[in-house]
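Researcher: Structure for this, please.
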Amino acid sequence: MENHNKEKLLACIGKVYEQAHKSKLVASFFQEVDTELIYLSNYFGISKNQTLITAMTFVLNYKGDTVDFNDLINYFDCNPMVLLTYSDDFSQLCEKGILEKKKSNHRVTLTYSNDQFKINERVTRAVLNNEPMPVIEMEGLNDVLDVFENIYNLSDDCNRNEVKSYFLFKQSKLIIEANLHFPLIKKIADFNFSNKDNFFYCYLIWKVLTGNETIDIGRAAENIFDSATERVKYIQEIMSKQNILVKQAFIELEEAHFFNDSEVKLSEFSLKLLEENGLKLFANKKKKENVIYPENIHAKELYFNEFEANQLEVLKQLLREDKFKETQNRLKEKGLPKGVTVLLHGSPGTGKTETVFQVAKASNREIVKVDISKSKSMWFGESEKIIKRIFTDYKNYAKDCEQMPILLFNEADAIISKRKESNYSNVSQTENAIQNILLEELENFEGIFFATTNLASNLDLAFERRFLFKVEFLKPEISIKAKIWKSKLPFLTEIECEKLASQFDFSGGQIDNIVRKSEIHEVIYGLKIEFKSILDFCSTELLAKTSGSKIGFANE
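Model: Predicted structure, token format:
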């Protein structure tokens, strides 16, 4: 093997640099420096084209700057398209660790136009110390989260077509091999996935760690594969459950309506693996749109008759954290279901939903509110999956809460009503299947479940024993309604409140409508509302009395 020394290496690098100036990278230039390129190529263990790039970067770095394409184009005085023919060489030098790449802040974001390159310090140290070309291995990271983030960030370059997928997969393998000192990374390496599956698994892990419970397969594949054919093949492999990650239950499918809308998520095994290695999951759960937090609930005084108030007081006491835990422990000891399931039923506007909010605020519990209309998908078979997923998501969410949250099915008439007779209707079969799943989930439920309905008379009998508490909300009595009027419009006299309560059979929700109209009236006219206007608003509230009703506000 030929011996190399510092003086000759530096002399060859210097000559290549000097001759390259204004050379336009024509054939005659390469003939002039062929001897030097061969010598340097033997030392670095790379091609002559890659040696040229390395030598130029070496010198320009020592002039105090990183190197970008524009620097080289100006120095060579060549057509930019000529330099772009070296793009694979730049990528391979970065892959081998001889060059290090970072992004600049250039306004132009075309491929390679905003990349800056620096020679690896271990290469320059070897040259200057008369040492052989080092075997460059990727350095380990200080935090396991950095490992996943670095792997995930590789997809940015692939998405911009700056690197090929094979480089992305190989580079992710190198990152894993350099960080086996982390127990979690060692376990992933021991699974012996292919480079492609290794990357996809780590990609999904990072998405989950940053708050995404599922990822869209199609979108992820676009970020990962530069070849459309490879992209489709990989999606099909996952969808047909032939991929090892699915077959061995590392990930799970969340099938949606269309082929490329399908999603995947980490399996329970994978989630447990992360938790066992100290990674807190779903850090962004607190941003869920369907979660209502106690601090965001406006405190309201609600009015009930004595029977309703007594039942609700039991619930409030039960949901105090000390009582709730004590109750669950006792029920568990006696082999009884631990869950607290509550049905609030009665006429619209009687305060059922607001009661759940106030109970949650009093017990400092979050509410996971479910939009029932979204669970009744038009796609046959999808609704059942959605209902199942609601309970799975709730259980996972509860693990991350200090206190057990409340799962609220608001206006649940659509899924707890009497089941349809068996027939050949797909709609009836789907609705019955949804109810069967809900009954099964409630049978084994261990959290806090509230459902509200306006049609308890249509409740399927199978649900009766699933609800531990069943509280009926009656339309308020005149004395209660008078108190509600007074609390909402304190400027009214007690006599005026009693008159409104006796003259109009309004629920609390309808009274709120009158209050809102009063506020709007004051804003528009800048005048304090009078009792006569309140009466006018009340007379227009009920649709059954629309004949001759007024539109807008009464003038004072």
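Researcher: Any notable elements?
Model: The chain has four domains: 6-128, 144-283, 292-473, 478-545. Residues 283-287, 546-556 have pLDDT under 50 and may be disordered.
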